[in-house]
Automatic annotation (TrEMBL):
It is found in: Cellular thylakoid membrane. It is an enzyme of class 7 (translocase). It is a peripheral membrane protein. This is NAD(P)H-quinone oxidoreductase subunit N. Belongs to the complex I NdhN subunit family. InterPro entries: NAD(P)H-quinone_OxRdtase_su_N. Keywords: Membrane, NAD, NADP, Plastoquinone, Quinone, Thylakoid, Translocase, Transport. Its EC number is 7.1.1.-. The keyword Coiled coil does not apply. NDH-1 shuttles electrons from an unknown electron donor, via FMN and iron-sulfur (Fe-S) centers, to quinones in the respiratory and/or the photosynthetic chain. The immediate electron acceptor for the enzyme in this species is believed to be plastoquinone. Couples the redox reaction to proton translocation, and thus conserves the redox energy in a proton gradient. Cyanobacterial NDH-1 also plays a role in inorganic carbon-concentration. GO terms for cellular component: plasma membrane-derived thylakoid membrane. NDH-1 can be composed of about 15 different subunits; different subcomplexes with different compositions have been identified which probably have different functions. The gene is ndhN.
Length: 151
């Protein structure tokens, strides 16, 4: 892997497929370079972790309720949170190409959740999805739909 990468093959595949499964070196560092390249080419970034997402579809595109722990001393309340992707899409700058949703620790997502993430770019054309699904010696990627075929 070259020390300085342009990121053009990643951008080309991301625009072509809409969603990518990423295999990143466990020591880190390479994903930050690709994120910078995507931001420099006109995309906005939203990095989240797959842990604790719950219902992925509602968290990303629908209003959902959140109940913080009440610790037995307060009444149970539900707070409603706006959808993360829809909210960020509404606030994109005029010259932005779109929103890249970068999901960390994606190896713990279920098959159904990965299927939804492959369909999300078709539902929202300005959204591109990258999911870190595992480690490797070098930074590489495949279309997220290939991950469904092998599972």
């Amino acid at each position: 892997m070259a020390l300085i990468t342009t990121g053009k093959p990643l951008m080309r595949d991301l625009e072509q497929h809409g969603s990518l499964a990423l295999y990143v070196p466990l020591e880190g560092g390479f994903e930050g370079r690709y994120q910078r390249r995507l931001r420099a080419s006109g995309y906005d970034m939203m990095a989240i972790t797959a842990r604790g997402l719950g219902d992925v579809a509602m968290y990303l595109t629908g209003v959902h309720g959140v109940r913080p722990p009440h610790l037995g001393k307060k009444e149970i309340r539900t707070y409603f949170v706006p959808p993360m992707v829809s909210y960020n899409l509404e606030h994109l700058s005029a010259n932005s190409k779109g929103l890249v949703l970068w999901i960390l620790e994606g190896g713990m997502l279920s098959r159904q959740e990965i299927e939804y993430l492959t369909k999300l770019p078709q539902l929202e054309p300005k959204v591109k999805v990258t999911v870190e699904v595992g480690g490797d010696r070098q930074f590489r990627w495949t279309p997220l739909t290939d991950l469904l075929v092998s599972a």
